[in-house]
Each structure stands twice: as C-alpha cells, then as structure tokens.
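User: I've been trying to design a sequence by hand for this structure and keep getting stuck. Would you show me what you'd pick, starting by listing the structure so we're on the same page?

Assistant: Good idea, let's start from the same input. This is the structure you sent:
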C-alpha cells in the first residue's frame, strides 16, 4: 500500500479533528473577507472566534448553488483580484454557470490532493498517464494533469474524442493509466473492437480513473473486465476544486474523502438535519485550505452516505459511498420517485443490455410515459430477430421490479444512440416541450 502523505492519511481521528478545528477557524476568518460571507455572518451575528468545537459549525448557515448565482461572481472572492491565478466555471448543467477562483496556493493544494489520490490507487512515476477528458473550464483535465505530473508520471494530455487516435496513443506510448469519463470508457470498448484492438492483448493498461458523472457498480465492472484493469472512482466538484475530493483505494469499499481539506456532513435534503453513517442524504462540504474562495457548508446536491465500517487500508479519513444520484435529477412519474441511477443499475447487470442507453419521458394524453432505448448487448447480436422482443420484455420486467412502473423498452442496434465524449446526458424529458 503506498501513501503520499502517510502521517496525514493515517492520522488518528482526534488529531485529525483538531487539525480540522484549527483550519476551520482560519477558513471562517478568510471567508469573512468575501462580500457574501461578510454580509451573512454580520446578519446572523456570527464571528469565527465563537467556534469552540467542530459541532459548532451546525450553527452556521449553508451555502447553496443559488447563493453562488445570486450576485456577481466576486461576491465570493476572499482575496484581492491580483492574487487570483486561475478561474474555472462550474459545468452549469442545471442553470447559470458560476466562477470558482484559485490562488497559487489553492492550485498547489489541489495538485497535491490529486497526487495523493493517484498514489493511493498505485500510480507511480513509472506510469504513462493518458488524460482523456476535456481540458478547459471543466476541472477534470487540468486537475488530473497537474496531480499526475506532481506525482512524476508521464502525462499525455490527450483531451477528449478522436477514439482512433486515443487507441493509437495507448499502443504507441504503452499507456498504463487512463483518466476517462465512465460513459466514454464504455463507448470506447466498442471502438476498440471496431479497430480490432484487444485491450488485454495489445495494450498495457492497469488502472483507470473514472468519475465526473454517476455510474453504477455494474458499469465499473464492465470497464474493468473489458480493459483488464482496476477502475478507481474519483469524486469532486468545481466548487471544491474539482476532482480529488474523494477517491477509492484499491479495496474499492467507498471513496476516502480527504478530511484534512474538507469537513464532510450528510444531511437530510428536506429537513437539513444531520444523518448518521449508513443513511443516504445530501453531501455538504466545507473547504479547509482554500484561500481565494472558501465555501462554508456547501450543499452539493449529491446523494451518498458515509460508509460505517473502517477501511482495511488503514486510512482514517471517512469514506463516501458511490454517488447514488442528485437531489435535482430525481424523476417523478405517476407519483413515483425514480433516480436514473436505479435504471442504470438494472441495465448494467443484464448482459443483453448494451452500455449506451437513453431515457425519454413523454406525455400520452394525461399520462406520463417512460421509454428506454438501449443498445443491444453482445449476447443478443448472435441471436435471431425473434429474441429481441423477448429480451425487451425481460429487461422491462427487471426495470419494473426496481422502479415500480413499467417503462417501454426499445432495443436498438449498437452505435445507434449518440455517444458522448464528456458527461453523458441520459434523460430527455419531453413532457410539456411539444417535442414528443
Ligand atoms: O465533474 C469534477 C471531476 C472531474 C470529478 C473529473 C471527477 C473526475 P463538475 O463539473 O463541477 O466537477 O461536476 C460536479 O459531477 O456534484 C456530481 O454530481 C458529479 N460527479 C463528480 N464525480 C462523480 C462521481 C467535476 N465519481 C458534479 N460519481 C458532482 C458520481 C460524480 N457523480
């Protein structure tokens, strides 16, 4: 087992918590320099020296995505502009994008965290690291790039797309580690088959870093089996730097969230009351080392739980479960709440379902209708056309057992559905748009 900062990664909980308390006080002082927090703290008569223990954080207000969007971006800036060396803009899939500022020290801390994650999963300076995600405003590209360089790996800044070239780069430079969006990793399996490349025989891959979008355990297994590697789940969000907030160790029993850099809370998204380990709720994070833009009790909208058991790797930093969905991606159909991840979980466990799928929501008169188009999986391709409706019915039955409503399932030829290179869009809600 390799450690990047052993003394921090194995730190006793009591020591870790006193480090957090110390950093929390400093973060609150820093946050007060940003106009938004100065205003909010004054209104609520909160001062950083009133913090006696970590539990006192519960008296402080949450920060929401709406708060970030409600004023000019500088409202959250806690340093003079001339100390800002980079800004990223959050993906904005659900509304106006927001700016996230970084100082030199913020970028250094972020790269160090990413290096820690990579080291934990076994990446070494001898590795060739192909970074197959977008460089630019998306934090995945530059985030992993600088972390892998700091670790000493040979980084290929491949960026997204152009599957043939990606495969050629892997062959030519004997790539051993890839960073890839999981839905693209699944698409690339088919591209490899088309190019007659067998990853087990022709490539040297041993680790994949996968994250930035929800993906099921079944999707991970498909990636691991097809490429013959270990796929480590990487969680993060632009507001907290980007990738590297939490990451899996080789035991794959949840994602260690780096508690020397963040305070983790799980709350009930409706009542905002804290939830104990083992119960799924909204992930709330407070930065502890950020200068340019500290965020206090930021509501991520991501749903996960704290894994109750300690990890066999010995790290004391608590683990998050796989992200189960987002508070804002819940679908309500015929009065039933459904998370798209429930549908993916079912599909990825059925070999007759391929890896690319789309969920359509339409109106049929007053009724909501869900149609799932899914590409055919390999076992179906060798069978006669009679088998297709039978397989569709079987898939629909499995889905019904999970989501309690009966979707229409349409099996389509592989390669028919749009293949994304970035974060996949899986749901098309056409109710009320007149497009159905
Ligand atoms: O996606 C940062 C990142 C880049 C993480 C590369 C991992 C790898 P944003 O674009 O701001 O940042 O999107 C953040 O993506 O709130 C989650 O909803 C989702 N997300 C990120 N990682 C995971 C993951 C980057 N491992 C939003 N599993 C987050 C599920 C994830 N969802």
């Amino acid at each position: 087992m390799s450690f990047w900062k052993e003394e921090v990664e194995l730190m006793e909980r009591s020591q870790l918590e006193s480090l957090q308390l110390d950093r929390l006080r400093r973060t609150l002082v820093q946050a007060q320099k940003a106009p938004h927090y100065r205003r909010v703290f004054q209104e609520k008569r909160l001062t950083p020296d009133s913090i006696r223990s970590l539990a006192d954080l519960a008296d402080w207000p949450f920060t929401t995505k709406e708060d970030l969007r409600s004023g000019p971006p500088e409202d959250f800036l806690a340093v003079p502009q001339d100390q800002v060396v980079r800004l990223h803009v959050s993906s904005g899939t659900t509304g106006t994008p927001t700016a996230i500022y970084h100082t030199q020290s913020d970028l250094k801390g972020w790269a160090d965290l990413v290096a820690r994650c990579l080291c934990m999963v076994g990446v070494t300076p001898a590795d060739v690291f192909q970074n197959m995600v977008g460089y630019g405003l998306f934090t995945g590209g530059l985030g992993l790039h600088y972390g892998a360089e700091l670790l000493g790996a040979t980084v290929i800044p491949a960026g997204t797309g152009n599957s043939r070239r990606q495969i050629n780069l892997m062959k030519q430079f004997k790539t051993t580690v890839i960073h890839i969006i999981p839905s693209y990793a699944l698409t690339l399996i088919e591209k490899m088959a088309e190019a007659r490349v067998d990853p087990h025989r022709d490539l040297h891959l041993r680790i994949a870093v996968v994250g930035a979008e929800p993906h099921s355990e079944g999707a991970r297994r498909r990636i691991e089996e097809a490429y013959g590697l270990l796929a480590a789940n990487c969680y993060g969000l632009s507001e907290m730097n980007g990738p590297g907030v939490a990451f899996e160790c080789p035991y794959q029993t949840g994602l260690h969230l780096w508690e020397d850099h963040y305070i983790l809370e799980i709350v009930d998204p409706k009542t905002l009351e804290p939830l104990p380990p083992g119960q799924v709720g909204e992930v709330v994070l407070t930065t502890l080392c950020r200068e340019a833009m500290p965020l206090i009790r930021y509501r991520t909208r991501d749903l996960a739980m704290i894994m109750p058991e300690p990890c066999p790797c010995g790290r004391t930093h608590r683990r998050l479960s796989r992200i189960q969905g987002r508070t804002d991606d819940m679908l309500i159909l015929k009065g039933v709440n459904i998370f798209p991840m429930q549908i993916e979980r079912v599909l990825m466990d059925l070999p007759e379902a391929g890896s690319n799928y789309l969920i359509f929501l339409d109106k049929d008169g007053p009724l909501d209708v869900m149609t799932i188009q899914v590409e055919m999986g390999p076992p179906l391709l060798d069978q006669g056309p009679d088998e297709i409706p039978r397989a569709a019915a079987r898939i629909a039955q499995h889905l019904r057992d999970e989501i309690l409503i009966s979707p229409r399932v349409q099996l389509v030829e592989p390669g028919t559905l749009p293949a994304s290179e970035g974060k996949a869009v899986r749901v098309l809600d056409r109710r009320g748009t007149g497009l159905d």
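That's my pick for every position. To get oriented when you compare it with your attempt: DSSP finds 13 helices and 20 strands in the chain. The two ends are 53 Å apart (CA to CA).
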